[in-house]
Request: fold
Amino acid sequence: MTRRAYCRCKAVRNYSYEEAAELLGCKPSWLEDNVARLPRQKFGQNPAVFCLCEITLIQQMHTVIPDDVKKLLAEDGKADPQDASRPAPPHEMPRPALASIVPAGRTSRAS
Reply:
């Protein structure tokens, strides 16, 4: 995996500790204390920044699914939400190239 292969952002918007903590519902000090274990971007001596993909990874890293819930999901035939092989949500799916989009064929009007 390349260093940013997980990133699906079309245009990367970086969030500070305060902004990322607000999105995650935690304190900025928790991010600062645990930054060595978290995905992030670091530019020289500047504080670390996080894109939405990294914030999503942090959330997934700290999501706990009890065994009973995993069993229920398995019974319903739903995949484990932490399974890396699951398809990306629709908003993260790649869009088709504009050149590949063609108009619909002619339709006849009912007279």
